[in-house]
């Protein structure tokens, strides 16, 4: 299809818009997959199939991988483990298999990716055993402690996150100011800003570390994410009292804080103040304003800042164009959104999967589910990775069908995702299982619940409560007891013993 989006930008037919999107998706792209990438995809597809009803059996995993006939290399191991980031149990099974293969080498990267996958499913004891293994092999770095600390914080275990940071000393590593800043950043980004503030105040008063502008900007960002503008301004004043002048990053964080609180006039005021002080705005700041103003349907203002950015000679990159696409979508100007997609393609700055996720979100929000599914199908037929559906895309479409009580279509998309070697996460399992309960498809719900457990994912309490009640309503008390026992086993027991 050679028709340009520019020629049909004023069309009102959803068919023409989808047809236009197909042109954009299938335009040639010079990037290609590496050989190790192809082998990683092959292994991920095998593991995705094995995850269905393997019951957590390592022998089945090993047998399936033995038949893969791939050369094991450090890049391959790292790529596969990254693909299993939502399936810690499978990641560990793959790692154990890879260790026994010719060509395998222990690397810091593969250990760190595995530790993060295990920490995501709260297998922290197993992760710490791996840390000891890394220490013995001379592969341990501060990044390992940072990622474990981050996973503790995201699991709402702030105390353990701080302890993970402090354990560096026990492994022979010295704290530095950058490590302290990283801890503050971790706590702030995990919605533990009050604790981060306490740690900051304690460290500052004890003079154990020297705080800097970066320390303050992290706290500013944390309070901004909490939409606590009072604390944002308190930290901002303290920062200036300590002799630190705001830079572009600082201004960008404050502008973003106002945008998150939907105080767009204040965000524009800070932007103008920034210009008056001779501080040049970055692409990220323009992107923040375009996103914020666009979401408030202040389209003309959003476009004004996009054009201003162009006039100032700043590089127009994918995120900024994505913000503009979103601005048009919020104002329900889908034809203009597709025109921007075409412009991105011509300039070589996209589009990417995120671009289409934005479009899908707004189509579904406008209840244009047929058009959304057509866009998704075009993405699915795209061979170029940057435009193909990601886990986020599949979550959007599965949720769409589940919300429409169309579980059969949700399962079709689910199976397509698994066939591409993409594994579901906790939220996606929860959405599907809850919908199966609503449709009284309890055998299928239990099957997917078991698959979730086999991947080492702990079910959220509200989802298990719904499944349990649905089973009890059907008189299946034995099934409830069996599933409850399996959850308890997963919670208490480490996945596997680790060899030294």
UniProtKB/TrEMBL annotation:
Write the record's keywords in alphabetical order, separated by commas: Repeat
Family annotation (Gene3D superfamilies): Tetratricopeptide repeat domain
SUPFAM superfamilies cross-referenced by the UniProt entry:
HCP-like (SSF81901)
InterPro entries linked to this entry: PPR_P_subfamily (IPR050872), PPR_rpt (IPR002885), TPR-like_helical_dom_sf (IPR011990)
UniProt repeat feature PPR, residue ranges: 107-141, 212-246, 247-281, 282-316, 317-351, 352-386, 390-424, 425-459
TM ranges are none
Report the sequence similarity comment from the record.
Belongs to the PPR family. P subfamily.
Q: What is this protein called?
A: Pentatricopeptide repeat-containing protein At1g71060, mitochondrial
């Amino acid at each position: 299809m050679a028709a340009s989006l520019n020629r049909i930008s004023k069309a009102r037919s959803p068919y023409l818009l989808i047809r236009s999107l197909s042109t954009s998706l299938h335009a040639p792209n010079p990037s290609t997959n590496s050989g190790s990438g192809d082998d990683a995809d092959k292994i991920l597809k095998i593991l995705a199939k094995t995850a269905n009803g393997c019951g957590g059996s390592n022998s089945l995993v090993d047998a399936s991988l033995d038949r893969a006939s791939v050369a094991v290399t450090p890049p391959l191991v790292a790529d596969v483990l990254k693909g299993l980031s939502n399936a810690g149990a499978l990641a560990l099974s793959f790692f154990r298999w890879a260790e026994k293969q010719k060509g395998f080498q222990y690397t810091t990267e593969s250990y760190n990716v595995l530790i993060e996958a295990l920490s995501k499913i709260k297998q922290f004891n197993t992760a710490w055993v791996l840390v000891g293994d890394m220490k013995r092999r001379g592969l341990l770095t501060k990044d390992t402690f940072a990622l474990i600390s981050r996973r503790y914080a995201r699991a709402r275990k702030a105390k353990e996150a701080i302890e993970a940071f402090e354990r560096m000393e026990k492994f022979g590593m010295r704290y530095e100011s950058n490590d302290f800043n990283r801890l503050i950043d971790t706590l702030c980004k995990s919605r533990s800003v009050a604790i981060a503030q306490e740690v900051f105040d304690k460290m500052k008063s004890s003079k154990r570390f020297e705080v800097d502008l970066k320390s303050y900007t992290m706290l500013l960002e944390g309070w901004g994410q909490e939409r606590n503008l009072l604390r944002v301004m308190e930290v901002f004043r303290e920062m200036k009292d300590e002799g630190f002048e705001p830079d572009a990053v600082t201004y960008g964080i404050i502008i973003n804080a106002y945008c998150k609180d939907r105080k767009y006039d204040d965000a524009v005021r800070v932007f103008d103040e920034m210009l008056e002080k001779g501080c040049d705005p970055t692409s990220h700041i323009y992107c923040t304003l375009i996103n914020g103003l666009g979401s408030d349907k202040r389209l003309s203002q959003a476009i004004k800042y996009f054009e201003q950015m162009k006039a100032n000679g700043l590089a127009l990159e994918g995120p900024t164009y994505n913000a503009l696409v979103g601005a048009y979508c919020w104002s329900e100007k889908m034809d203009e959104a597709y025109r921007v997609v075409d412009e991105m393609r011509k300039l070589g700055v996209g589009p990417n999967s995120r671009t289409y996720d934005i479009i899908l979100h707004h189509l579904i929000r406008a209840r244009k589910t047929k058009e959304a599914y057509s866009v998704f199908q075009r993405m699915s037929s795209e061979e170029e990775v940057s435009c193909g559906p990601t886990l986020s895309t599949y979550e959007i479409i599965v949720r769409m069908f589940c919300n429409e009580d169309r579980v059969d279509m949700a399962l079709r998309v689910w199976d397509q995702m698994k066939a591409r070697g993409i594994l579901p996460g906790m939220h996606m399992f929860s959405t599907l299982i809850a919908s199966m309960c609503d449709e009284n498809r309890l055998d299928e719900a239990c099957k997917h619940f078991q698959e979730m457990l086999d991947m080492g994912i702990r079910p959220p309490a509200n989802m298990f409560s719904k499944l349990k009640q649905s089973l009890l309503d059907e008189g299946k008390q034995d099934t409830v007891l069996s599933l409850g026992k399996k959850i308890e086993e997963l919670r208490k027991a480490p996945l596997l013993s680790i060899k030294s």
